[in-house]
Predict the structure.
Amino acid sequence: MKANLNYVLITPARNEVEFIERTLKCVVSQTHRPLRWVIVSDGSTDRTDEIVERYAVRYPFIHLLRRNRDQNRGFASKVFALRAGLQSITIGTNQLIGHLDADLSLDPSYFRDLLKKFEEDPTLGIAGGWYVERIGGEFRPARGSSPTSVPGGIQMFRPKCYENIGGLLPIEYGGEDWYAEIMARRRGWRVRSFLS
């Protein structure tokens, strides 16, 4: 069953030559692809841009946006890259906003399954999957994983929730994902992480 909702993705990428192609392959293999995927090259100096451009030629929903990284912004640079990506997208009423790190792998049904969760629960403001790591030859949820917290690298937002929280706060030492969750709950939205 195809979800009625659609989504856009924004990926901040800085020198991800080692991982970006695997992430690109995972997204183009999704059973429900994004309407638009903006990959923001945050001052990359390696071949990240070249790899993304190669995929963008083959897949019209992929767009590369180059940004000069401000070296004084620390971890907040990721938020500025996400903001730049969001500004390049027009969000429709039935479109969710997804943040996806450039070094993650996903099952082909990941986004289809996540969209269904949003369709089933209109109070769901932020959702995503669990972050798992290879430990001792098998994949296990990362330490600190919880059904009530979504890792920032795979957060999906309902647009109204994103608007209610004022977007992400650029925090020099990180934690913008926690800030988003706290603000969403304060505004009456549910935050859930799903282990599929």
The mean pLDDT is 90.
